[in-house]
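During the no-cost extension, the postdoctoral fellow (Dr. R.K.) reprocessed legacy sequence entries with the updated structure-token encoder. One reprocessed record is reproduced below for audit purposes.
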Amino acid sequence: MILDNVVWGFIGCGSVTEKKSGPALANTPGSRVAAVMRRNAALAEDYARRHAIPRWYADADALIADPEVNAIYVATPPSTHMHYALQAIAAGKPVYIEKPMAMDHDECQRIIEASARSGVPVFVAYYRRALPRFAQVKQLLDSDAIGTPRSVRATLHRPHSVNAASPDFWRTNPVIAGGGLFVDLGSHTLDLLDHLLGPLSDVRGLASSLTGAYAAEDSVSMCFRTGTGAHGIAQWSFCAFRRQDEIEITGDRGQLRFATFEDIPVVLETEAGVQAFDIPNPPSIQQPLIATLVDELRGNGHSPSNGISAARTSAVIDQVLQAYRTRHSR
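Re-encoded structure tokens follow.
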């Protein structure tokens, strides 16, 4: 499927679209936004007015049927991702889905199968795959700057947030989010490791709610093997003493250190010394990935984040949370 120009309709126009994605979808060459939808009509109208978007809707069916819109951005919570993605695919319109791709791997597979049958492309907003700082990490790995990767350690710690325990905070409501902050934030790290080192396998995980503040997990540990054969361990705590965000990839000739979220330099350490790469993120953080998917839709190149790659991350999440979900579904 090749489009001359990509004309977007947003299903959902909440906070993620204000800065992270909306400006990039509007301003990338060959891409523009024609319509937005939100169930709250007043908020949809306000968003459209503030961003100079021609039309707004309070009904997703109407937005998908808009004849000018030829691509759909699903920016709702995960519980509705599959529903809207399947609707867009059935209408023959490529779909860009916020992460995680869906509630679980089974839902991802349904989207992938619909895409394969129809030939309608699916992309997922794991935008770290295209950020310049992680392109630098991948270039260093691919050029054997640290030799053969042998081990990986990933850590994300955040203090407990009272807001996260609020009934109005959907990201810790498993019925809406598919899990808690591990699913929301940890998915970025898991997908990034998949991109840098190949698909994760031999996954083992332990998840708990140590605070009992909400239904979802707040503490997760896992071990795994990367596509390169390196052994990995990772830990997420959302009830920790202080913030910590670090990934270490150690090879037989050096080590790389960087963060999933924090704006800190990428550090390469070898016998030759220590080198730091300070690479800022763009103002609209999804812009580099959006540029790749717009290019692909216009027949130029391929995006690094699609339904198939994103579904692998959902499969890993399912493996890690399987026992926790089983215990808490009784």
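The longest helix spans residues 307-328. The CA atoms of residues 7 and 70 lie 5 Å apart. The remaining legacy entries will be reprocessed before the final report is submitted.
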